[in-house]
Amino acid sequence: MSHSGHNLLIGTYTETLPHVTGTADGILGASYDPLTGAVSDVTVLAPTRNPSYLALDPDGRHVYAVNETHTFEDQPGGGVTAFARDPATGALSQLNSRSSDGVAPCFVAVDGRVVLLANYDSGSMTAVSIEPDGRLGPEFAHVQHQGSSVNPDRQAGPHVHMVTPDPVTGDILVSDLGLDAVLTYQLTPSGLTERPGTRFAAPPGAGPRHIAFHPDGQHVFVVCELASVVLTLRRADGRLVLAHVASTLPPGAESGPPTLAGAIRVTPSGRYVLASNRGHDSLVMLRFDAETPALTLACVQPSGGAGPRDFCLTPEADRVIVAHQDSSNLVVMDLDEDRAELRPLSTTQAATPSSLLFAP
Question: What pLDDT, in 10s, does the model give residues 256-267?
Answer without folding.
Answer: 889 999 999 999
